[in-house]
What we know:
By secondary structure, the chain is mostly beta strands. Helix content is 9%, strand content 53%. It has a single domain, classed as Cupredoxins -  blue copper proteins (Immunoglobulin-like), CATH 2.60.40.420.
Amino acid sequence: MVTNRLRLGGALGVAVVAAGVGFWPRGDAEPIAPRRHEVEIRSFVYEPERLEVQRGDTVVWLNRDIVAHTATTDGWTTGEIRTDSADWIVVEEPGEYEYTCILHPTMKGLLVVAP
Length: 115
């Protein structure tokens, strides 16, 4: 479900992700440029809590909280994201993925990847 995950720190890392450009072929359809989506972590909450994306899109978790967090499912994890840092995944498989912070299990989010 995930490719090209890379831990990034601070504004420089986010700028590197923002500069990425590419296309995802979808059968006989015209290529669609992937989009970049952000989930901010503040006060032990993912915002937005539910995010809908397309195959090939990049999802970036930005930690604006005072402690480290993760975004983790059975199939992937961001790893530990420290304060003022980011981590990202490129989604490949359609489906609904409930994720949580393994350090703070009451934090929950839902990533919906359209077919």
